[in-house]
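Q: How would the structure tokens look for this protein?
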Amino acid sequence: MSSKLEYNSKESEQKWYSYWEKNNYFHSEVDDREAYSIVIPPPNVTGVLHMGHMLNNTIQDVLVRRARLLGKNACWVPGTDHASIATEAKVVAKLKAEGISKSDLSREEFLSHAWEWTNDYGGRILNQLKKLGASCDWQRTKFTLDKDMYESVIQSFIDLHNKGLIYRGYRMVNWDPEAQTTLSDEEVVYEEKQGQLYFVSYAIENSEDKLTIATTRPETIFGDSAICINPNDERFQHLKGKKAIVPIVGRSIPIIEDDYVDMEFGTGCLKVTPAHDENDKILGEKHDLEVFDIFNPDATLNSFGLSYEGQDRFEARKNFVKDLDQQGFLIKIENYTNKVGTSERTKAVIEPRLSDQWFLKMKDLAQPAIKAVLESHDIQLHPKKFENTYKHWMENIRDWNISRQLWWGHQIPAFYFGDGAEDYVVAKTKEEALALAKEKSGKDLSIADLKQDEDVLDTWFSSWLWPMSVFDGIRHPENKEFQYYYPTNDLVTGPDILFFWVARMIMAGYEYTDKKPFENVYLTGLVRDKKRQKMSKSLGNSPDALELIDNYSADGVRVGLLLSNAAGNDLLFDESLCQQGKGFSNKIWNAFKLITSWEIDSKIEQPESSKKAIDWYGSVFQEKLIELEDHYSKYRISDALMTSYKLVWDDFCSWFLEIIKPAYEQPVDKLTFDAAISFFEDNLKILHPFMPFITEELWHQIAERTPKEALTISSWPEQKSFSKELITDFTFASEVISGVRTIRKGKNISFKNQIDLVVINNENASKDLDSVILKLGNIKQLSYTDEAVEGSLTFRVKSNEYFIPVEGAIDIEAEKEKLNEELKYYQGFLTSVEKKLSNERFVNNAPEKVVNIEKQKKEDALAQIQTITKSLENL
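A: Here is the predicted structure in token form.
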């Protein structure tokens, strides 16, 4: 057994992580044990460790490490997501810095650069997770563009297309002009912004009349196809069947009628731009209007924008409004607050755009997923409050736009052989596509006649298969690993991707396996600072995750994160909690140093107080094991940490070690020492999921261990019977000890001096722990009586009265002098208060609240005088 003087966390973290990896403790293979599997929410390959990752992965590691200790075959699959939009943007930026434009490259050339970038920078975050202590099965690391993962995604697309669930349609989509790709509805964030409402005058053709429309986006006037009025609006009856002239543009457009128009909004006249608004598109189709798409992919104006062609939409707006004003078309401008859709990834303002895209029908896919979470509860969300959010989204689900106008990702396996809407086939390879195209067209086509779709699939279309594809369950559903590890047990993720990812994985799971993909979903909160602001690099309020580990140790940061987090609630992160976590490590280290500093004597008899302490701590530990089981079963991970923290800090360090500690320079008996070490080992086991490094370090300092005896693969403490009565008795005894210590401190009675303690045992309290009271109170003699003891200092625990005879314990004359001084003070204070209360003018004129305060002062002074007088009588 060895014990270093100081704990070196950096050395320990490096040493034990290497040891765990070298001995393959985190790797899992199929065997006859119960499987426990978790898949990591794959971070972007572009990512670096931030506070959200730290929290999420700490919780996963706690669950996985505990599963190992419970004897389960734990498998935590790590991996990264190719992140189409984010990665392509980084590669494009890198190339731009090198003077290369994406448009100058072929697809193959660009992908070569993207792979080079990914190989250089990708996966950094996984190495950073090792510093946190994440016990992933690194041999199973997956990337969503790995060959087998790629094939799984392509196979899934073909399958869903063949089932009629994937279709191609000309639809209004969310267009990100910065990334130049479509986004799904869930990738659009609506932000309330202060804008302006522009009132613009339109001339009526062949008439002196004019009408006014109100718009927040005057640049879309170039795309106007009609003006729409409500047929019931009396104000515009005279305009029916007429035409309006688009200002500056000069185009003649019809005035149409539709009760869709809100007569109360704006001017009651609605400009219709079918290419740039979902509702206008519906109106356009209903009234057979022309469509003018005025934007280039980067949201600059095209030739429909006339002299403004090439200008950015916001620049064009400013210039166009200026010209409208100068030419007399602008009536007025009002401030207007509205919700503006922005890209979750690039933060660019979304542009509604008509486009040919691929869609996945969601209504039928959603039904089993709704039932699993909301009806049968086969899948549990923790906390349950998120069921309402889940229900709302799932019951209002829309078809999923799964195509993206990017090159980095899974290229859509659709091959075109003609110009018609149906002139395409879907297949894994060009060879298979050619055979299908020949059959479909009836023509003798060649490979050269086929053109593969340029678009890639939405990144989420690969990650929705993640729990299946990481075990090759899409390509080979009968393989033994998939059969063994799937469904997985737990998923830990943020509520912000409950729809993007969680709900879709549930849908995919039931579609492909008719099984749930996981049993429990633990939804963490967002990490916020002390001001409740979301932590982000842009706000400058997010600490560097690796720096935190460097300053406070991995164990300290893990404890700090969990001390401030409860499932589903936002985490108010305070760096001082990491300091508290580091302090806890020191407490455990110092406790071990204390135990191992004692000399052991196998010949001396075990003290009665130590016997009782061992019985008591054994019972407390067993009681806490039950409490821990309850917390873990309900995914109250922070509560499980607090139970462990208090058990070790309060019960073990503050009470147990104090009771068994031998007198100065005296040895400890072997029975007590062995029990202390055994309890310490059990403490390390329950702390290990939270604090893997220091616990493994101390585990090996206790004794020389073989690799098969490492803490990380040892066993969770066994549940045994225990005495609740002993725990209750000890709680009472601890209050007695606290009472003795309070009097010692208050009366300056040295803890080195032995005193007597006499008890009136009205509670009929157990005497079994008297030996503990004697030791921790440094009491010479503990006796029982039926009458009050004169000349004593007293305190009460419930109805029990305790007396400490002052003779020999304190300087009576000095104590009398002190008490008389206090008595004199309170008597003088009482006199001044009574004088004020006897003044009728004060009592009648002062506010009732002020008078009551004085009355309370009088009562307090009388009580103090009574207490001091009684103490003087006892001396």
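The longest strand covers residues 188-204.

The two ends are 53 Å apart (CA to CA).

Upvote if useful.
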